[in-house]
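Pipeline run #58 for the internal structure catalog. This entry was flagged by the ingest filter as a single-chain record with no existing model, so it goes straight to prediction. Upstream metadata was stripped on purpose; only the residue string is passed forward. Reviewer on rotation: M.T. Logging verbosity set to normal.
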Amino acid sequence: MLKPFLLTAGLLFATGTALAAENHAHGHGHDHSHPADAKGPHGGIVQKLAGFEAELVLADGTVRLYLLDPANDKPVAVDGIQASLLFTQGSTRKGTLILAPAGDHLQASGKAPDGADALVSVRSKDGTSGQARFELGGHAH
């Protein structure tokens, strides 16, 4: 019971720290490393994340994160990978989800709050970690 709590707390702390650093570094709080219309093989938004191409798909009350091999866009095995998602509006936190392995992707039940973006944190089996912001279309540039 304590281990999942500590993992969640650690991921949330890291996410909040990255959010603060990102807002400070960019001034407006978002990363434009991929065009807003970049779509992955499952129709989701794609960003670089911890050595993967990460595809975030939100549909039917479910959040799915596919970690894709950048060489061929095929999903990689997600067993042992830890991930969390923080919904934000500007610098305001709107909710957090812990994503769990579900076949070839990570998944959680939930919906994005209106006007929110998503900050995803991932830690792989080998300890590699990373974060990426996914613009969900809830704000103006």
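catalog note: Residues 2-134 form a domain with the Immunoglobulin-like fold (CATH 2.60.40).
catalog note: Residues 2-26 form the longest helix (25 residues).
status: ready for reviewer M.T.
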